[in-house]
Amino acid sequence: MRVRVSTPATVANVGPGFDVFGLALKEPFDVIDVEMVDDGAIIISVTGLGSDDIPVDPKRNSASIAARFVLDAAGADFGVSLSIKKGIRPCSGIGSSGASAAGGAFAANMLLDDPLPNEVLVLAAAKAEGVTAGKVHADNVAPSIIGGFTVVRSLSPLEVVSVAAPKHLGVAVAMPDVMVSTRAAREVLPDSVPVRDLVFHVGHAASLALAMERGDLGLLGRSLRDAVFEPMRSSLVPRLAEVETAAMDAGALASFLGGSGPCVVSLFDLRMNDGENIVSAMKGAFEEGNIDSESWVTACGEGCRRLVP
Amino acid sequence: MRVRVSTPATVANVGPGFDVFGLALKEPFDVIDVEMVDDGAIIISVTGLGSDDIPVDPKRNSASIAARFVLDAAGADFGVSLSIKKGIRPCSGIGSSGASAAGGAFAANMLLDDPLPNEVLVLAAAKAEGVTAGKVHADNVAPSIIGGFTVVRSLSPLEVVSVAAPKHLGVAVAMPDVMVSTRAAREVLPDSVPVRDLVFHVGHAASLALAMERGDLGLLGRSLRDAVFEPMRSSLVPRLAEVETAAMDAGALASFLGGSGPCVVSLFDLRMNDGENIVSAMKGAFEEGNIDSESWVTACGEGCRRLVP
Q1: How far apart are the C-alpha atoms of A57 and B186, rounded to whole Å?
Q2: How close does chain A come to B163, measured CA to CA in Å?
Q3: CB-based contact (8 Å) between B187 and chain A?
């Protein structure tokens, strides 16, 4: 049996929700073809964006590691062959590695007679991210598998609370031609923060979760703030402040660094704006600093799903 | 014109929501009679629980200060006389001073031809708390005025997001015969916290807000956790851990220090439990440490409201 699945890009952190919030995007996404292999092995191949830099050793690739965790959890007596076509550029800040991990777990699960529940898939993918990135985290893999907006209440035990993203929430993304390694983005962060910043993040995170649940886009815009992490990382992405200001001036509800960057993500109300002027403004603000960028308009999306080949 | 209003006790902090979350209780409450005074003065009298220790200087009493802020904000050309009957014991951890401030603002507002909106009343009461307690805070006054569960997204500018508390949420309270000053409770707190504690509080706070909004009492119980503040304050309330454990063993969803203590508050599902065994268990656990306590069962409540005299 051969099955094709898609696994979406995601934005992690999302304002006050460092390591907690994530949002699935409609585009871009990876496509994974999976089929059963009799001898229990995991075989992997990768094509598409940035594929030259992605390891194809099954013990070092997040998709194959996640698939292995799923097969082991199910006690499966077979292996899988995964053919990944990357639509999401690695190191861009929109969860490329997380999408592969999520897709590997989801694809392997499609071959089981008794599929495992989403929470097991999220855990498998989060653990795979731990193997490849050095830190178990679920803020990308959770929305990649479940879709919409997700809240990682707890990693151990894992609990993810999911919220259907507001219907009218548009997403504009600008990806500058700048490299930010996840490691560098982590290294600039502090070990501790003032209590007043905890209070700020708690107040804004609770409000943002309620705004998502209610589809209250005004409250969403006022709540999507980060007092700690993005300010620390702003030096890693030249022109960040100018790009965000340009997006807000063009009508965005909020504009922020996607994940650990360098993508800049702006949210907007699809009833008020088609987003084209926002991506133009973002692209233009990068250009003023002589920085090329790729930019596009999309929306919040579903999680991993089966495609009809 | 003479008007009578009630102003409820509230629980602030509420698990992960230090300085952000608050919950209005059905009982106890203060009752305030208010009437117009022609010469612009504020006159105040206080009777009831703990009234001997409450200042009646209008410049030092939170109710009269809040009333003054409301009259000034409205440009009123009259003063008010406030007669407060305290049903909420001061320094108990259930927002006694906040209820007075809220009630003072709400009562003065009842006398205006064009009443001010709730957010102005919350701001007036929060500023009054700032005068009497040394720190502007809205986590008690917001639920006292609005009712239900409240999230203070931001103090400046003030924005409060309110959530109707779940219909089946019961509250059991045990008030031990122990004094905890708000000042002492603040002094034991750290100035800064590890980033992992911020992540914990953000994840749990967002989940708790969603649990309140959805009426998901299971999620509410799992989300109502505090990694930082209550652990620091546990030494201020003898037997706290034993009382909370006793409440959980008796079927509570969560058990925690109300505000800065010494009240211990347990939440439970009214469909599963009438709460009597929970208050008995809490009282018993205090008694085993030779500590007397007053205890009662109540529910989430409305905010300030007019009573028919």
Answers
A1: 54
A2: 9
A3: no
Structure tokens at A291: 């920085």
Query: Given CB atoms, is B152 within the 8 Å cutoff of chain A?
Result: yes
What's the CA gap between A236 and A230, in Å, rounded? Answer: 10
| pTM score above 0.95 | yes
A285 contact partners, CB below 8 Å, separation of at least 6: A239, A242, A243, A245, A246
Amino acid at A43: I
Query: Encoding tokens for residue A41?
Result: 């092995």
Question: CB neighbours (10 Å) of residue B49?
Answer: 18
Nearest-angstrom CA–CA distance, A281 and A7: 29
pLDDT digits (tens, 9 = 90+) for B6-61: 999 999 999 999 999 999 999 999 999 999 998 889 999 999 999 988 888 889 99
Whole-angstrom CA distances from A15 to A135, A151, A200, B167 are: 21, 13, 11, 31
B208 touches chain A (CB under 8 A): yes
B187 is catalytic: no
Nearest to B189 among A21, A195, A208 (CB): A195
Structure tokens of B201?
């509080």
Alpha-carbon distance values, B115 to B70, B74, B112, B120 (Å):
10, 8, 5, 10
Q: Is B223 on the interface with A (CB under 8 A)?
A: yes
pLDDT of residue A187: 86
- Within 10 Å of residue B164's Cβ, how many Cβ atoms? 12
Which residues from A are below 8 Å from B209, CB to CB? 206-207, 209-210
The one catalytic residue among A27, A35, A119, A182: A182
* Nearest chain B alpha carbon to A228: B195
Task: Tell me the domains of chain A and their CATH numbers.
Answer: 2-163 (3.30.230.10), 169-299 (3.30.70.890)
Digit-coded pLDDT (tens) for B59-68: 999 999 999 9
What percentage of chain B reaches a pLDDT higher than 90? Answer: 88
Locate B8 and state its tokens.
């409820």
Instruction: Tell me the count of A-B CB pairs closer than 8 A.
Output: 128
B7 is catalytic: no
Average pLDDT over residues B167-181: 93
Interface check A126 vs B, CB under 8 A: no
Q: Tell me if A161 and B198 make a contact (CB, 8 A cut-off).
A: no
Contact B195 A202 (CB under 8 A): no
Q: For the stretch B191-223, what's the b/e string if a residue is b when 16 or more beta carbons lie within 10 angstroms of its beta carbon?
A: ebbbbebbbbbbbbbbbbbbbbbeebbebbbbb
Q: Tens digit of pLDDT for each residue in A235-251?
A: 899 999 999 999 999 99
Which residue among A163, A189, A192 places its CB closest to the CB of B193? A192
